[in-house]
Amino acid sequence: MRIVMLGAPGAGKGTQAKKIAKKYKIPHISTGDIFRANIKNETELGKKAKSYMDQGMLVPDELTISLVIDRFQEPDAQNGYVLDGFPRTIPQAERLDAALKKSGSQIDFAINVDVPDENIIQRMSGRRACVKCGATYHLQYAAPKKDGICDSCGESLILRDDDKPETVEKRLKVYHEQTQPLIDYYAQKNVLKEVDGTQGLEDVFRQIQAILGE
Ligand code: AMP
């Protein structure tokens, strides 16, 4: 099962992607996580990506596409995956389709987690991420057991630079301009499925399970 998650930043697609990966036993591939790991390890790619990410801009397609296509070649991705944060532009989607076509496969579901802009900024200001392991929390919806401390590794939690309100506004603008057209792109391919992302986490997941099957 090959799944693409669509939705504005902060719509909760990352959280749902992790739940899908666990239930359907497929890898969760997040370009944001790959970039953040590179930033942490101070790689060349990380240095380049950081300058765009901190400004709420997209990392250029030429740095992003080959990264994901390489990841598909790995053994764990042969029976499917859930893509979170990729594709984010029409050229990325076209390159993805071309790579899949070569191996005789295609995207089976593009799930759009729909949340209006009004809700997004408020949601993002409550997000917290672990400085060490990258685990994410939400002060309202998925609070850590101990204030400001990561449940998994005990390190401190922070508001990521790219989740700060001024950056979120920019990211939303970029989303509407560059990523939202993917909704039509996948609708034309008859694989688009819409879920109401304003519901609670478990309710959203129930909507997704109704689409993917038990
Ligand atoms: P995310 O964690 O998916 O919200 O991604 C965080 C940031 O990483 C984005 O705001 C972009 O700057 C960058 N990024 C992640 N995925 C992509 C992509 N497919 N294309 C370009 N930039 C991306």
**Second CATH tier, the architecture of the domain at 2-27 and 74-115 and 168-212:** 3-Layer(aba) Sandwich
Structural class: alpha/beta
In what range is the share of β-strand residues?
5-15%
Number of strands: 8
Largest sheet: 5 strands, parallel
How are the strands ordered across the major sheet? 2-3-1-4-8
CATH-defined fold name of the domain at 2-27 and 74-115 and 168-212: Rossmann fold
Averaged pLDDT, please?
Answer: 93
Q: What's the name of the CATH homologous superfamily of the domain at 2-27 and 74-115 and 168-212?
A: P-loop containing nucleotide triphosphate hydrolases
Our count of helices gives: 9
Q: Determine Rg (CA atoms, Å).
A: 17 Å
Ends distance: 13 Å
Give the bound compounds: adenosine monophosphate
- Per CATH, the class of the domain at 2-27 and 74-115 and 168-212 reads Alpha Beta
Shape: globular
Low-confidence stretches: none
Taken in chain order, the helices and strands follow as EHEHHHEHEHEEEHHEH
